[in-house]
Structures are given as structure tokens and as C-alpha cells.
What we know:
With about 210 residues, the chain is α/β, with parallel strands linked by helices. It is built from eight helices and four strands, in the order ααααβαβααββα. β1 (about 75-80), α5 and β2 form a beta-alpha-beta unit. The longest helix has 22 residues, at about 180-200.
Amino acid sequence: xxxxxxxxxxxxxxxxxxxxxxxxxxxxxxxxxxxxxxxxxxxxxxxxxxxxxxxxxxxxxxxxxxxxxxxxxxxxxxxxxxxxxxxxxxxxxxxxxxxxxxxxxxxxxxxxxxxxxxxxxxxxxxxxxxxxxxxxxxxxxxxxxxxxxxxxxxxxxxxxxxxxxxxxxxxxxxxxxxxxxxxxxxxxxxxxxxxxxxxxxxxxxxx
Length: 207
């Protein structure tokens, strides 16, 4: 069965979900572009179509929320690292946990890996954050444009720069190849930074 056939169901679901916001043609274009970007880096094709649908939904939602009157006034934060398999995934999961719906959170990688670091998944599960169903996502212009704050973690000049955005760079140890004990320390450092950022974005919210 071809990818076009497999994506047919996703096309219909996303077109219905974003009806009145984007044309079906736009939805289909973003979906297939999302599939192609994930396909270019995937070593394992299991669930690739499902991931492409989820990635496309995030991109379409990012653009929709960046339009006047759609964001609901919630700040948008994007965490970016090279592989989107460790630091940025932990940061996104921690901010989502601490913010409790007061912030929109996304993460991406300038050169996404095939899967999330298992030690990262385990360390996050210890504090109640489930990353088992997450996957590394490519960095795209639409999610950067939608963000109010872009937190970079070692992606260098691969991060697009747009006026009106707040950029923050966090120097953090890459958890790749580190023991679970070391990953826990990285997680806790990220958590401290995330809670500080949250108090700046939503002063009434204390992690």
C-alpha cells in the first residue's frame, strides 16, 4: 500500500479538524511535507504515518494560533536542540507539567534523531511525565513563527531568527550516552530553568 493511500485517512481527519481555517489543499500539502521530512530521517518506519499526522497537526495548530485572536492569549514556547531526543523533549515535558495549561509548548530538532533517548524517557517517567509516545520532530519555520519564546540548546545557527521573538540559549549537557544518574541531574537542571521561565511568562503560576 502506498504512502498516499495510507495518508488518505489523515487527510480527511485534518481537513475536517481545520475546516474554516485552512483549505483542504493546504492541509494535504503540510501533511505530505511532514511525512517527507520524517521519512528522510526515519530508520524505523513503524508508525511513520501516525507520526506524520501528529506532526502536521502541530504545525497547522501553530500557524492557526499565531493568527490574531486564535492563541487565546497563552504564551507559546518552543524548545530546540539538535536531535530533539533529549534536552528539548525534557524541557517541553517539564514546562507542560509545571504550566498546567497556561502555556502552549512545543519542541523540535535541527537534525532530529530516529527516537527519543531511552534514559530520558525513563528519567522523565520517574516524575510523572510520559515521553514514551513522543517522537523527534524537525524544526520548521511555522513553529518558530508561532512561538513567543524560542529556547535553544545547542542547535547553533540552525535556528531561524525572526523579529518580535524572544530567544534564549541554555547551555546544557547533552544526555546522549549518559547514565540514568547523569540524565536525572540534567533533568533537574532543566526543571529549575523551566520553572524560572514559567514565572516570567505567567507570574501568577509557581511551578
